[in-house]
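May I ask for a single protein's sequence together with how it folds?
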Amino acid sequence: MAFRTLEWTLRSRHRRGSGQARQGSGQAGAPSAGPGGALRLLDQTQLPHRVVYLELTTHQQVAHAIKTMQVRGAPAIGVAAAFGLALGARSLPDSPRDDFLAQLRSIRGELAAARPTAVNLAWALDKVMEAACHGPDATAIREAALAEAQRLAEADVAANRALGRHGAALIPDGARVLTHCNAGALATVGYGTALGVIRAAVEQGKRISVWADETRPRLQGAALTAWELQQDGIPVTLIADTAAGHLMRRGQVDCIVVGADRIAANGDVANKIG
């Protein structure tokens, strides 16, 4: 069993604000298509105290969710925006192909402006636009946009699982792992990147415990990472950001796994302040 970060769903199947996150493997799963349709999104601003799902039916709602960090994490933002563009295509009336694409590019611009620093955002929107441009008419463009958004979602989960398998080989049994911010299922469509490595190591039978930095000022570690690991039953201890150096000095950290917001040419990585 697993909670879902986001999915494409029939609007009639769920009520706004309903739904419960369940303990499981961190697998958010590829969205399932349906006519009508809405983007069902776990509101991360409510965690860890409340589990609230939103049903977004317009691209404006998706842009707002990105701006307000109801969805966060570059992979999740990218896929959410891709579905936002698909929703935008569905909202447009039929028109000649070139006019339709011009309106869709305008919607793409609105979504791209929601979080300019998220690398995956513009990349995912460009992928959807590229697919849409192959459509000969408005109907085909709508179908192509949704299909590409679904493909991106499925590819994200597959990539995360592969990353987890490879990364888990580097983590020894009994390791005490330090992580920062949140790079888990909540930051992706499913499974996670940095936390996916930890998750895969546990699935391989390794005994892993985690130190989770609280990650000020937004507290992603406290509100999201600790909650997510608890859902999977992985031992986690929440620490102040300034305690990380103390633990390393005392030899209580065996390895560190973090997401990479940016990677420099020399291999250095940058994550959140905290």
